[in-house]
Amino acid sequence: MEVKDLISKKKINGFAEYADKHDIFNIFHDMVQKLLTKQPIDPIEYMIEHLQQPQVPSIILHGITMSNVKVVGKILAGKLNCEHIIVSELIEEAIRTKSSLGIQAESYYNDRNFVPDNIVVSLIFKKIQEQKVAKRGWILQGYPKTREQALLMKRKGIIADSFIVLDIPDEVINKYVADMKYDCRASTPYHLKYNPPPSIINPNNLIDIPVEFLTRINKKMEIYNRNLNSIINCFKSVYRSYYYKDGIYGHEEEVANIIYNNLGQRPIIDNPSCLKIAIAGLPGSGKTFLSEFIAKKYGVIHVSVENVILEEISTNSELGFILKTYVNHYNKAPKDVVLDLIVRRLKKEDCEQNGWILDGYPTTQEEIDGLNRYDIYPNRLIYLNVPKETCISRLVNRRIDIKTGYRHNLMNLPPEIENIVQPSNNNNNNKEQNSISTLRQQECDKEKYVLERIEEMKDLKEILIKAYKYKNRVTNEGIMQDIEVDGIGEGLNPKCPSPSMNRAYDIIKGTLMRPVPFKISS
Questions:
Q1: What is the mean pLDDT of residues 222-229?
Q2: How far is CA 197 from CA 67, 200, 213, 246, in A?
């Protein structure tokens, strides 16, 4: 018999909750990694100093050649106020200033040969040790290009807290390069739309890209693709990928913003966890849909106001009989009764043993205070950021198929449903059901009630921020995080959600594998 067999699941969950709340596993993971790579003379003193220092970014931004990832890195470094380190420029600077490492690199560089890894890694290490870089943090680009280089960096003590890959198909790069022009005098390529030449250069004097240039690009792409997976394996716990099937040309600022907003995510740590999730957002933001998927994926119990009311009704109790009045308008049920039902459900053994996801509750300070009185605290709160107009459109146009039970949206119907739905004759151009359709609108989804519910929750986000807070690096407190969810449509059926819900579900799955992310201030 093992020790764990003598401890109740509830007790183990308590350990996991404490560790999650105070970020214990992440602190020790980071500390051990730093100790082993830096090997300080006095480990205890180093740990104390390290814990007292503010955390700064240490990011490797990786992307295929000619993808404009360098532009994204520059924008991101500006947002983070950190150093933007481009390895090719670092080598050129060392050669120009005649540093000892620069002198060693010069002959290789001038002959267009690869500069030895030990020289490049030493240049990077020296750069990040500079006082201004150490205080501000850094973004590294152009390195590593192989698994061996990645491992050498780690052995040298160059530790990244994020390894970000911009995933862009080869055919997009090939098309971009094919559309480029070349300045023979300056040996410089230009793209007339995305990277035009200076005004002093006449575009008519530019020529098609030389064969030698194309050969070099193809060689770089081949090396990149051959080594990518092995490099990723060296950074598994801090790896994040962003896929752009059409490239990022002309959208570099937008891409940088997306990366910036996700930088609060911390490394994946394989540790015990007890999920007690609250999922919030305006009516129509997708809370219930996503809650069902999360409950199925992680085995937690899905609890909502609707669920607890229906459960009580199913018991045929006196209270259940009274609650039948609110079946179409759960938000109008007595608040004290709802609180009691929610608390009773969360205190049941299955919730205590498996964890839970609380869907759409609490929504007011009174409800938050009520949960607090019963010592019920979520350990993470996911807020779905959806424009009000999108929520209204989702709900007002939402229909239930009475034969299958599937949800559909009149603005995004599957073909087999659309052919039995006729356009209405009114002026709003929305599609309405005709008499042969099996789609029905729920009472609570009628526009009058939707607008009423949206208005009731106009201050929801501010209430939740005040009560639960975003996590910050100073106090390490806060459990709230935002997920962007946009788009119309309920999906064809529960097995095939809409693209926007798919994206949200993927993001949430990623966040639940990690500690609560820090909020990056703009």
A1: 95
A2: 17, 8, 17, 23
In this model, does residue 503 exceed pLDDT 80? no
Residues 6+ apart with CB under 8 A from 345: 301, 303, 307, 308, 311, 351
* The pLDDT value given to residue 521: 57
Mean pLDDT of the chain: 84
- CATH assignment of 54-167+230-262, given 1.10.10.10, 2.40.30.100, 3.40.50.300, 2.60.120.10? 3.40.50.300
- DSSP class of residue 353 equals H
Length of the chain: 522
| C-alpha span between 300 and 355 (Å, rounded) | 5
Alpha-carbon distance 30 to 201, whole Å?
51
Please name the residue ranges forming H helices in 235-324: 252-262, 287-298, 305-314, 318-323
Backbone angles phi, psi at 318, to 5 degrees: -65, -40
Distances in whole angstroms, Cα of residue 377 to Cα of each of 291, 333, 380 = 18, 23, 9
Q: Please, are residues 55 and 473 in contact by the beta-carbon 8 Å criterion?
A: yes
- Give whichever of 7-11, 30-34, 273-277, 406-410 has the largest mean pLDDT: 273-277
3-class state of residue 143 by DSSP: coil
Q: Is-contact 91 109, C-beta < 8 A?
A: yes
CATH class for the region spanning 276-512 = alpha beta
Cα 245 to chain centroid, rounded: 18
At position 466, the amino acid (one-letter code) is K
Count other Cβ atoms within 10 Å, centred on residue 105: 22
For the chain, how long is the longest CA-to-CA vector?
A: 89
pLDDT at position 9: 60
Number of other CB atoms surrounding residue 310 within 10 Å: 15
Which string of DSSP letters, residue by residue, matches 313-351? HHTT-HHHHHHGGGTT-GGGS-HHHHHHHHHHHHTSHHH
Q: How far is CA 164 from CA 144, 236, 332, in A?
A: 12, 11, 46
CA distance 303 to 342: 8
Give ranges for CATH 3.40.50.300 in the chain.
Answer: 54-167+230-262, 276-512
**For the CA atoms of 443, 446, 451, 453, what is the dihedral angle to 10 degrees?**
20
184-213: per-residue pLDDT in tens? 888 899 998 998 999 889 888 899 999 999
* Cα torsion angle, 307, 312, 316, 318, sign: negative
How far is the CA of 58 from the CAs of 7, 61, 139, 163, in angstroms? 40, 10, 6, 9
The 10s digit of each residue's pLDDT in 237-248 is 788 899 999 999
169, two tokens: 């198909």
Which of 491, 481, 489, 490 minimizes the C-alpha distance to 512? Answer: 481
